[in-house]
Write a structure and sequence with these properties.
Blueprint lengths: L1 H17 L31 H11 L3 H17 L2 H11 L9 H9 L2 H4 L22 E5 L11 E6 L8 E7 L5 E5 L11 H8 L2
Antiparallel strand pairs: 1-2, 2-3, 3-4
Length: 207
């Protein structure tokens, strides 16, 4: 009888081990998938050519989270590598091809680039939002796959991305094109001000 009980217990434990259920967060997603899906060591470096970027877009922009990473890659190419190349990349990833007419966005790119760095995990005002544009992860806290009542699910997708310089995540909205690629549809919240980096705060206090 004892051996039979032990055998039954062992079988029950094997069955339980074989049934793995991923715990979901309050938004119905795997918590591990809240960030962009790639692990730190798998994040590709910034693209060096337009051809390389176009290939990434064709491969990855079918996923709105990866599309967000591509848009930020384009912004960081503009800020850190080559403005002309970065402009072409931003244009490719943005529905509004006249984005350079957005005065406040252009001012943020020129005068407050730390706003865009603040979306990288690990940045803080205290470390002046320091980050490696060739190796960063976005903290995507929530995904809304039907932000507009009169549109089909997944036709538009709104991501809420955490900024280390703000108190709440900020929306970045995408629209899916005929190829199934997600392009940035609305991004005005991405260049709203954040808490100043420590170096700037110290300079302002020095009078």
């Amino acid at each position: 009888m004892f051996r039979l009980q032990m055998a039954w217990l062992a079988m029950l434990m094997l069955l339980m081990a074989g049934v793995g259920v991923a715990e979901e967060d309050e938004f119905g997603e795997d918590p591990a998938a809240s960030d962009t899906e790639l692990a730190d060591e798998e994040q590709p470096r910034l693209p060096k050519t337009m051809e390389e970027f176009e290939a990434r877009v064709a491969e990855k922009a079918l996923d709105p989270k990866q599309a967000a990473k591509l848009w930020f890659d384009a912004v960081f190419v503009y800020l850190n590598v080559d403005k002309e190349l970065g402009s072409q990349m931003i244009t490719l990833m943005t529905k509004d091809k006249e984005w350079q007419k957005k005065t406040y966005f252009m001012a943020a790119l020129k005068e407050r680039p730390h706003i865009f760095r603040s979306y990288a995990k690990g940045t803080t005002p205290e470390n002046n939002y320091e980050m490696d544009p060739n190796k960063y992860v976005l903290a995507i806290e929530r995904v809304d796959r039907k932000p507009f009542d009169d549109k089909e699910e997944d036709e538009y997708v709104k991501l809420f991305i955490k900024s280390s310089g703000a108190d709440s995540p900020r929306p970045l909205t995408f629209q899916r094109n005929l190829r199934g690629e997600y392009k940035v549809y609305e991004f005005s919240s991405m260049y709203v001000g954040v808490r100043p980096p420590q170096s700037q705060a110290d300079a302002e206090d020095d009078f």
